[in-house]
Design brief:
Chain lengths: ~110, ~110
C-alpha cells in the first residue's frame, strides 16, 4: 500500500480560479514533505519543501500547508494559469538518506 | 534547466537486449538517484549513490544495476529487457544525499522496448 495518497486523482479548473490538492501520508519516521510539479514527459521540479516544524510555505502562487499531527498536507494554487497544467506530486522524506516516498500525483488541467 | 544531464534522450531497443543510461549530476552534487516512471505510474525509486558508494536501494530489479564513477557521473544498466521495462528513467542529484536536501531532476531518458 502506498504510504503517500493524493486526491483528487485529477481535476479541471478554469483559468484564474483557485484550487487545492490534498496529500495524506503514513510514512514514519517523517523528516520532510515536498511538492513537485511535473510537466508531461519532463523531470519533476520542486515547488516547496517543509520539515515537521513548518506548517506553511509559499512559492509564488503556490502555497503548501502541513499538519504533521494528522499527517496531511495541501497545495493551494492561486489564480491559476494555463502553464499550471501539470501533475503535482506529493513526496515524503523519511530516512536520513534521500530515499523518498512518492504519491501518484494529481493531474491538473487549466482551461481558458 | 536543473543542471542534471541525461543521455540519451530516447532509446528504442528490443526485448532481451541490454542498454546503459547515463547521468551527470549538478556541479558540486555528490549524490545521484535513479527513478523509473512507467506510463500512468508514479515515480519509483530505484537506487541512490553517494560519492561513489551505494546508499539506498528501492524497487530495483536484479536485471538492473548502477554505479557512480569517480567523476560522480552515474550509469544505469538494464539487461534482459522486457516490454514492461518501457518507461521514463529519471536521474536526480543532491548536495549530500540527506533527506532534507532538494533533489534536482534531469530531463529523463525515454526507453521503449519493442
Amino acid at each position: 500500500k502506498n504510504q503517500v495518497e493524493q486526491s483528487p486523482q485529477s481535476l479541471i479548473i478554469l483559468e484564474g480560479k483557485n484550487c487545492t490538492l490534498q496529500c495524506n501520508y503514513t510514512v514514519s519516521p517523517f523528516s520532510n514533505l515536498r511538492w513537485y510539479k511535473q510537466d508531461t514527459g519532463r523531470g519533476p521540479v520542486s515547488l516547496t519543501i517543509m520539515t515537521f516544524s513548518e506548517n506553511t510555505k509559499s512559492n509564488g502562487r503556490y502555497t503548501a500547508t502541513l499538519d504533521a499531527d494528522t499527517k496531511q498536507s495541501s497545495l493551494h494554487i492561486t489564480a491559476s494559469q494555463l502553464s499550471d497544467s501539470a501533475s503535482y506530486i506529493c513526496v515524503v522524506g523519511g530516512d536520513s538518506w534521500g530515499k523518498l516516498q512518492f504519491g501518484a500525483g494529481t493531474q491538473v488541467v487549466v482551461t481558458p | 534547466d536543473s543542471g542534471v544531464t541525461q543521455t540519451p534522450k530516447h532509446l528504442i531497443t528490443a526485448t532481451g537486449q541490454r542498454v546503459t543510461l547515463r547521468c551527470s549530476p549538478r556541479s558540486g552534487d555528490l549524490s545521484v538517484y535513479w527513478y523509473q516512471q512507467s506510463l500512468d505510474q508514479g515515480l519509483q525509486f530505484l537506487i541512490q549513490y553517494y560519492n561513489g558508494e551505494e546508499r539506498a536501494k528501492g524497487n530495483i530489479l536484479e536485471r538492473f544495476s548502477a554505479q557512480q564513477f569517480p567523476d560522480l557521473h552515474s550509469e544505469l544498466n538494464l539487461s534482459s529487457l522486457e516490454l514492461g521495462d518501457s518507461a521514463l528513467y529519471f536521474c536526480a542529484s543532491s548536495v549530500d544525499g540527506s533527506s532534507y536536501n532538494e533533489q534536482f531532476f534531469g530531463p529523463g531518458t525515454r526507453l521503449t522496448v519493442l
